[in-house]
Structure formats: structure tokens, C-alpha cells
Design goal:
3-stranded antiparallel sheet, 2 domains, 4 helices, alpha+beta
């Protein structure tokens, strides 16, 4: 969703630049002059070479129009986007979700890159699996077993 917003802002900017370039190109071709901030650039003494900057500026404007109207690049398409649920931690394709809600728990979904970049921020609500418990060992009195045997104290039988 954030990527789509950025793409819309870029396209609006490209379109505004396109309009400015077309306006500037028409002014150069029609009046043979151009105002650049406080400087007046006069193309009248160039003969027919004033056509070159006019056509270049208009061509640049159409290149910006192409950037405005082109299809979204493949890596920005939401169909290829993988989302991860914050609550149940399952991954889904964008196509499998509706309104970026988890189909299983109806939790909030985030892009997988964002999830792994900020995973310490998300609570872990998944119930851990039951661990197998080891049988309790019977504690024995190990002090009697670990006593050192003194050779002199041993009685020898004959």
C-alpha cells in the first residue's frame, strides 16, 4: 500500500513536469525566447537552430508523459507481494487476502520485508506447542556412593 502511494506521487510529479516541458517547448518555438529565472535567453540570432532546444524540451516532456502513463513495473505489482500476519505469523500472497486482512485470524498484514526488519516489535501471540516432558528421575543419595574408600579402613577377610 505504501509503495502504491509513492508511485502515485511520482506519477503526479512526472505529469506536472510534462506540462511544464510542453509549455516551455512551445514558448521556445513560438517566441524564440526563454526566461530562466531572471535571465532572458534569446534564440533569435541562432537562425533555425532555435528549433533544436525547443524540440529537445518537448521530447523530454513526452518522455515524462511515458513515465506517467506506463504500466507499473513488475516488482511493484501487488500480485507478487507477499504479506505476513502480525498475529498468527503466517505468510500469504496478496491475491489470497482481502483488504490486507489475514484470512485465518483477521489480523493486520504487513509486507514480509517490513515484518522481518521490525519483527521484535510484533507480539508473539501464537501458542507454543506442548513440549514433551521428560520423566522426573528419582533422586538418590549420591553422597554415600561417592565416598572415597580408604584402603586402611577396609577389613580383609581371611
Amino acid at each position: 500500500m505504501f509503495i502504491r502511494l509513492i508511485m502515485i506521487i511520482y506519477r503526479i510529479g512526472y505529469f506536472i513536469c510534462f506540462l511544464y516541458c510542453i509549455n516551455l517547448g512551445i514558448i521556445i518555438l513560438g517566441a524564440k525566447t526563454m526566461h530562466n529565472r531572471d535571465v532572458l535567453v534569446d534564440f533569435r540570432d541562432m537562425g533555425y537552430f532555435y528549433v533544436i532546444p525547443g524540440v529537445v524540451v518537448i521530447g523530454f516532456g513526452f518522455a515524462l508523459l511515458y513515465l506517467t502513463l506506463r504500466k507499473t513495473p513488475k516488482y511493484y505489482r501487488p500480485e507478487n507481494l507477499i504479506l505476513k500476519c502480525k498475529e498468527c505469523r503466517r505468510s500469504f500472497n496478496y491475491e489470497d487476502t482481502d483488504n490486507e486482512k489475514c484470512p485465518k485470524c483477521n489480523g493486520e498484514l504487513v509486507e514480509i520485508e517490513t515484518y522481518y526488519a521490525n519483527r521484535q516489535l510484533y507480539k508473539r501471540t501464537k501458542v507454543p506447542k506442548n513440549k514433551k516432558h521428560k520423566k522426573d528421575k528419582i533422586q538418590t543419595d549420591k553422597t554415600n556412593q561417592n565416598k572415597k574408600i580408604d584402603i586402611n579402613s577396609v577389613k580383609l577377610s581371611k
